[in-house]
């Protein structure tokens, strides 16, 4: 009988409240006090570090007992997803935003019948956009860091749930304020792109001659000493480049590109016996080809060929491609005209260059 009595005591202790598995934390539904006009939460993911995964809380539930691990009902990801879906309208015509839960942790310590709790909450919000290939691109928008410290009686745990719920609402309010504040001026939230080209056609007296239809090359522009060992009568150095600036106005990226086709006097030379009008025209056509390729480059940089999140890389890529195209076309021009010695083919190239410059609006 004595052994049976001891076994009963052990069973009673085992099923006492201190040893029963605690109930999970159930978030109470709450509608946020605002209606988002710019976004909806499309996804909630648990992205806590490995050391912080698992149940979110270490709660002191009984005096003199160690803290117990307690999780949200259904787990953090599911619990927050369910709360957000009820708290926010899901207007899928708005921008799609992902919510990444990076830290959600409650640690309590008990001293007698009083419990001190520390709650830490960190969440990031990303804009989700299509990558054009059936996938999507995530661009980080903003981050919310919150939490609270509290003191509660050991038998009352309502503050645990309310602390989590208030942090979630505060994070959604922070995102809503961010979107409303940034939507018209933040490049990440832009809905379109506009490109404005400006040509540098300055008339200067220094080493650089900028391409200008009213300013043709003259022999006095060729200031360098003829290259030793070269069989050519003349050589002109031309190139082109661009400078870009962007801003956002009314949700549209304004991409301003200043382009310049130019010739460098101190890198260009001509032999004295070759300085005639025919030879000068051949060198001018090299300059015209540079301008022509620059105009072709403009055709590649149009809004429908750019993406808001990667337009700068696209512009740089197309510039390098156009630069290579310029070098190939210059070499082809010299090869087919035999550096201007074949007058018949020179005339064909003269006509071809003028026609395309007129088509591209660079020559009347």
Describe the structure.
The chain is rod-shaped, with a radius of gyration of 36 Å. The protein has 2 domains: 18-183, Rossmann fold, CATH 3.40.50; 192-359, no CATH class. It is 32% helix and 29% strand. α4 runs antiparallel to α5 and α4 runs parallel beside α6. The strands form 3 sheets. Strands 1, 2, 3, 4, 5 and 6 form a 6-stranded mixed β-sheet that branches. Strands 7, 8, 10 and 11 form a 4-stranded mixed β-sheet that branches. The chain is built from 6 helices and 12 strands. The chain has helices at residues 2-14, 76-87, 158-182, 277-300, 311-337, 343-359; strands spanning 39-46, 57-59, 68-70, 95-111, 114-130, 136-153, 192-199, 208-210, 234-235, 238-249, 252-264, 269-270. The longest helix has 27 residues, at 311-337. The protein starts with a helix and ends in a 5-residue tail after the last helix. β4 and β5 (114-130) form a beta hairpin. The protein is of the alpha/beta class and 364 residues long.
Output the radius of gyration. Answer: 36 Å
**Tally of individual domains:** 2
Number of DSSP E strands? 12
- Poorly predicted residue ranges: 4-18
Mean pLDDT: 93
Cα separation of the termini: 116 Å
Envelope shape? rod-shaped
Count of discrete alpha- or pi-helical segments spanning 4 or more residues: 6
- DSSP helix fraction: 25-40%
H and E string: HEEEHEEEHEEEEEEHHH
In short:
This protein is an alpha/beta fold and about 375 residues long. It has six helices and twelve strands.
Question: Which descriptors apply to this entry?
Answer:
6 helices; alpha/beta; 29% strand; four-stranded mixed sheet; 2 domains; Rossmann fold; single chain; six-stranded mixed sheet; 364 residues
